[in-house]
């Protein structure tokens, strides 16, 4: 799917309206983390949130996930107000969310079994995603036997196997070394192209945001506000060699300049 193929007239499926988030600190002070956030995202977009530490990126993602109730405002997904969590919104965190006492296959099957799907469908879905994330031959391995990148692939397969419409990712590759991180970014794009879900991705890595995204939401420092939304003009599919191209470096410089203004 290319940026050019996104229908710019399509009505947004996710609408963020007037979101404000306040927290009370230990000394009783009110802290305004997010203020007046208004955004709209279309189906099958890949969106990244980026901004300096403390700008509320992860907080906004948790509100979209239904893990946190905003102080003010609402979020509509496909016309319905988000209240609490839902299997339609999958979440991947930076920390591993795999169960250490379960094998690769059983980790991926876990959510499917909670849906009480027939055993043959559970097994078929798990096998499909084991193959898609390249873990064939590791089905019966436990997380302690896997590298960090392999555990993250289990994490992705676990969430994608439940066929979420909306995938929310909070710096999922932040703890990985650079080579593994680059490989996982390419892997994620292939999974996204296969699944066709909308992805909202939090990162502080400029190169990661440019490589992955259709659009990048730049948040200003606390209280977090939408500073600008940057369209990424790079065509799809995107492969590793794109990172060395002049057009990629130009997009990265553009994003760097936007963030430098708030340094």
Automatic annotation (TrEMBL):
PANTHER family for this protein: ALIPHATIC SULFONATES IMPORT ATP-BINDING PROTEIN SSUB, TAURINE IMPORT ATP-BINDING PROTEIN-RELATED
Family: Belongs to the ABC transporter superfamily.
PROSITE patterns from the UniProt entry: ABC_TRANSPORTER_1 (PS00211), ABC_TRANSPORTER_2 (PS50893)
GO molecular function, one term: ATP binding
Annotated protein name in UniProt: ABC transporter ATP-binding protein
Residues covered by the ABC transporter domain: 19-246
Coiled coil stretches, renumbered: none
Domain of life: Bacteria
A Pfam family reported for this protein in Swiss-Prot or TrEMBL: ABC_tran
């Amino acid at each position: 799917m290319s940026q050019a193929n996104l229908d710019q007239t399509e009505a947004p499926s996710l609408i963020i309206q007037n979101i404000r988030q306040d927290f009370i600190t230990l000394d009783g002070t009110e802290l305004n983390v997010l203020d007046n956030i208004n955004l709209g995202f279309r189906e099958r977009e890949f969106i990244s949130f980026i901004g300096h530490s403390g700008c509320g990126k992860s907080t906004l993602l948790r509100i979209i996930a239904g893990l946190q109730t905003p102080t003010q405002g609402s979020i509509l997904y496909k016309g319905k107000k988000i209240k609490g969590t839902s299997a339609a919104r999958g979440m991947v965190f930076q920390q591993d969310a795999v169960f250490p006492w379960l094998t690769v296959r059983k980790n991926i099957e876990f959510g499917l079994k909670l849906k009480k799907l027939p055993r043959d469908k559970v097994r078929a879905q798990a096998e499909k995603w084991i193959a898609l994330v390249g873990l064939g031959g590791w089905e019966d391995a436990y997380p302690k036997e896997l590298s960090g990148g392999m555990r993250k692939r289990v994490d992705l397969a676990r969430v994608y196997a439940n066929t979420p419409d909306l995938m929310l990712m909070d710096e999922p590759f932040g703890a990985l070394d650079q080579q593994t991180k680059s490989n996982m970014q390419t892997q994620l794009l292939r999974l996204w192209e296969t699944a066709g879900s909308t992805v909202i991705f939090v990162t502080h890595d400029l190169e990661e945001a440019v490589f992955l995204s259709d659009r990048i939401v730049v948040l200003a420092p606390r209280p977090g506000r939408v500073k600008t939304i940057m369209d990424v003009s790079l065509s799809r599919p995107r492969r590793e060699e794109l990172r060395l191209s002049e057009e990629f470096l130009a997009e990265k410089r553009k994003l760097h300049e936007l963030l430098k203004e708030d340094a």
